[in-house]
Amino acid sequence: MSTSRRELLKLAVATGGALTVSGLLVHRTSVASDGGGQVPAAAAVGLAPVAAPFQVAMPVPPVLRPQWISGTTDYYSLPVKPASVEILPGLSTPVLTYGGIFPGPTIKARSRRRTVVSQRNETPSGTSMHLHGAVTDPENDGGPMDLIATGGERKYTYLNPQVAATLWYHDHAHHLEAEHVYRGMAGVYQLTDANEESLPLPRGAYDVPIVIRDIALNEDGSLFFSHDFFTRKQILVNGKPQPYFKVDARKYRLRVINGSNLRPLDLKLSDGGEFVQIASDRGLLPAPYTTTRLPLSPGERADIIVDFSRYALGTSVVLENTMLASPSTKEIMRFDVVRKVADFSSVPARLAELPATEEPVNTRTFAMSMDAAGTGFMNGKVWDANRVDTTVRWGDTEIWEIKNLDAQIPHNFHIHLVDFRVLDINGVPPVPGEAGLKDTVRVMPGQTVRILVSFKTPYAGRYYYHCHLIDHSAMGMMANLDIVR
User: Fold this and answer.
1) Residue 50, φ and ψ in degrees, nearest 5
2) Which of 112, 132, 234, 249 has the fewest CB atoms found within 10 Å of its own CB?
3) What angle is formed at CA 80 by the lines to CA 139 and CA 78, rounded to 5 degrees?
4) What are the backbone angles phi and psi of residue 263, rounded to the nearest 5°?
5) CA 428 to chain centre
6) Domain ranges of the chain
7) Are the C-beta atoms of residues 456 and 485 closer than 8 Å to each other?
8) Which DSSP category does 162 fall into?
9) CA 194, 198, 202, 205 torsion-angle sign
10) pLDDT at 328
11) The pTM is what?
12) Could you check whether 59-198 and 362-484 share the same CATH topology?
């Protein structure tokens, strides 16, 4: 029996036996609407009904406090361990967590100030924590084979040599990353800098992470996991089912993260109201972008400003999803306007200066696809830890042309370490909300996306690129990137 399969079986025992082991759980995922389209390879039986929406309050993940602070460094302890939480009222759900919290606690860091995270693995399988969106050396990137064994410990060190951004950390242990993240191993990493702090944006209690994901639960409250999009009809926000959130009649900064394994989102307010996008994956936009919709594929982030002062007290407005939405997955959460307060925040006309771009020296093409068995391919190959797929020269700027060869299955594309600019999607330039610094980009069925990538970074070595519909990377849709000086 392979190590991966053995660890899958141990994980099934540790999480209540709800894991469906079928090879590597390679059920195909289609973009047909919930309740239609392809029948999954193994039917889900005995699932709990979806909870009625807006019955519970949305929690804000707690901010992790440092164990101690030096002149240069904040030191944290963040063990990986099983826990039981109440997701549906009255039911206990076994989960895998960072620090015993579902989802994980928020880590607040500062640009160019070091963060050290000590981690002990108390789960039954190897883990590897990846700080998604971080500029970090290969030793601290959390690669798919750089595992902490059960009972083992290590320290992750982040120097944070980048601008303010909403990042997130999650497991990346290959063949297990999809299930580990699904069972709760993810959290927000909030990076600030002097420029962001100088802006009059909403702060404190009015700066709120919104982590959206979907799950399926068995009748006993345990999580049902397979690589089957259609079973995942329960929307969670910050770990609670379609919650409500009481807001003051003023501006809020909402840091929206699509933390789903597979579900793409296209978000809007139920009254069609406008909001202002101020940041994308890797930091502030040059200027605010007023819009009525926010598309996000798994792994993408965007910070938006919603001004609730335009609503009368007692008004409720729902955050809705319009992509692949069934009755249970359309309504994400509800905002209830409850109190008038003074608001001295504002959104300035200029937010940040993006770094200058250089002329590309090379163009490469990448193709993502899946076969009928659910195996994922990057340029026709399944990921192999021992193969070098792409070698780039440190300091170069390149155009990467990314194709989704599948006619029905959505993908996206994430590169470790570097950020990039989206040049065009099927030849059409991106809207301003997607024209900032990115590390993950949607590549919907049949699309071709071109990005401009700079490899002038503080680090060189082995990194990775993959589809961040994270089940797809677990199925093999990932490749190795060597940056050489």
Assistant:
1) -65, 140
2) 112
3) 70
4) -80, 115
5) 25
6) 59-198, 362-484
7) no
8) S
9) positive
10) 87
11) 0.92
12) yes
The answer to whether residues 250 and 339 touch, using CB atoms and an 8 Å cutoff, is: no
User: Which residue has tokens 């039981």?
Assistant: 84
477: nearest Cα among 165, 175, 31: 175
CATH 2.40.160.10 for domain 59-198, yes or no, is no
CA–CA gap between residue 191 and residue 448 (Å, rounded): 31
| Separation of CA 418 from chain center | 16
| Residue 324: per-residue pLDDT | 82
Residues contacting residue 415 through CB under 8 Å, at least 6 positions apart: 439, 453, 463, 464, 465, 481
DSSP 8-state class, residue 57: B
**Exposed e or buried b per residue across 176-215, where buried means at least 16 C-beta atoms within 10 angstroms of its C-beta:** bbbbbbbbbbbbbbbbbbeebeebebbeeebbbbbbbbbb
Measured between alpha carbons, how far is 147 from 261 in angstroms, rounded to an integer? 21
User: To which residue do tokens 């992750």 refer?
Assistant: 156
Low-confidence stretches of the chain (pLDDT < 50) are: 1-9, 11-43
Query: 362-484 sits in which CATH class?
Result: mainly beta
DSSP H/E element including 9: helix 3-14
SS (H, E, C) 417-459: CCCEEEEEECCECCCHHHCCCECEEEECCCCEEEEEEECCCCC
* Per-residue pLDDT at 26: 34
d(CA 252, CA 60): 14
Q: Which amino acid appears at position 71 of this protein?
A: G
Q: Which residues is 121 bridged to in the sheet?
A: 80
Q: Is 438 exposed, middle or buried (0-12, 13-18, 19+ CB in 10 A)?
A: buried
